[in-house]
Design a protein that fits this description.
- With 158 residues, the chain is mostly helical.
- The chain has a domain at 2-27 and 35-90.
- The chain has five helices and no strands.
Amino acid sequence: MGWIRAVYAIEFLLAVLVAVFAWPMVAGQGHVDYVPWEWKLGLTVAFALCFTMSTGALVTGDRVRAVSWLLGLAVVMVGMGYQAYLAHLEEEETEGPDVFRSEMSNEDVFDHVARNAGEPRVQALEFHREPLVIDAQHVQHGGMEIVHAHRVLDRGVA
């Protein structure tokens, strides 16, 4: 008889894990983050309790109690959805972090500026000519330009 209680305890802990991981997947992590912790804790424990008690009622053969615990589980799941909906209504309408908020520290203001991650910071170098190709326009104007030279202190060409 003691091992069945250990199995129910393990089932309860697994139901807690299911509630903790499935709720954000269904309702959205951003919405569940805004749900107050009291509601998260209460609804998660109620979910696990209803799940475990319905399993216990099914094992003993009491279908009426099992159905009532499953209805309680459905009510808890509706409560989870309602809390996520209320959190959705209360969250801010901005898409990302506001760079000019006073809450943020001044040293990481430019870390939050949105930019395309695939966009390079420096533009690529573009060549206007192909290598080892002589430009016909330079040849037409006489090829190389000769600079007018002056003598420096009468010693020679600078």
